[in-house]
Amino acid sequence: MRIAVLTGAGISAESGIRTFRATDGLWEEHRIEDVATPAGFRRDPVLVHRFYNMRRADAARARPNAAHRALAALAQRHQVTLITQNVDDLHERGGSPEVIHMHGSLLGALCAACGHRWSATLVMRSLDPCPRCGKPATRPDIVWFGEIPYHMERIWAAVEEAEIFAAIGTSGQVYPAAGLAQHAHRNGARTVELNLASSAVSSDFDEIRAGPATQLVPAWVAELTA
């Protein structure tokens, strides 16, 4: 069975990684414009690096939870395309063999000058030289607001081919991720939302299950692998 799964911040929240709080425009006490936009990085790269260095350290301390491990088990039984909006590596550490990070990864560094990518160190600075061009233009390899998510052609193709599409721990407020369920439904997939509360696009799903990911996901996977 071909299954496409989209995960968001809610699946990592139970591992202790804080979610984006859209209601007050703040993200861990920082304005989104200051730490998650290209303009914010140009204005104050020191602040942005300090913010992501802390996030990287928090993610390194976090541990995969039952939901991460259940999705890894699902991939052992079915053809699963795992797409995540998260920038942590909890899916990989939870055992998932392949993960598409549409919003980048805390484990990646990107040269703002030449576009070269390499593995991030635990602590990064904007003055760190690029290994390829040597310019001091290092930034996190994160897709910020106003930038185009990664791997979209591959993601759309996987969603089109899926027999089941599941969204787990997502708010349904950030596009293009929020449009994947509707796309899957148009192409004949059964769509299911597993979320702590209904998302902004719950009407796009055939089935909605509400509750913590650590409870919902293992139960859902058990049904598919019975």
Order of helices and strands: EHEEHHHHEHEEEEHEHEEH
Structural class computed from helices and strand pairing: alpha/beta
> How many beta-strand elements?
11
**Overall shape:** elongated
**What gyration radius follows from the Cα positions, in whole Å?**
18 Å
- Named CATH architecture of the largest domain: 3-Layer(aba) Sandwich
CATH homologous superfamily (4th level) name of the largest domain: TPP-binding domain
Which residues sit in consecutive blocks of at least 5 with pLDDT less than 50? none
CATH class of the largest domain: Alpha Beta
Mean pLDDT across residues: 94
Q: Give the end-to-end Cα distance, rounded to a whole number of Å.
A: 13 Å
Strand content: 15-25%
Please give the share of residues in helix. Answer: 25-40%
Count of all domains: 2
Describe what this molecule looks like in 3D:
- With 226 residues, this protein is an alpha/beta fold.
- It folds into 2 domains: 1-17 and 64-103 and 149-226, Rossmann fold, CATH 3.40.50.1220; 20-61 and 108-142, SIR2/SIRT2 'Small Domain', CATH 3.30.1600.
- Helix content is 35%, strand content 22%.
- It is built from 9 helices and 11 strands.
- It has helices at residues 9-13, 32-35, 38-43, 45-61, 66-77, 90-93, 152-161, 180-186, 213-225, and strands at residues 2-7, 26-27, 30-31, 79-84, 99-101, 104-111, 117-119, 138-142, 164-168, 190-195, 207-210.
- The strands form 3 sheets. Strands 5-4-1-9-10-11 form a 6-stranded parallel beta sheet, sandwiched between helices.
- Helix 8 (180-186) links the parallel strand 9 and strand 10 (190-195).
- The protein is elongated and about 50 Å long.
- The model has no long low-confidence stretch (mean pLDDT 94).
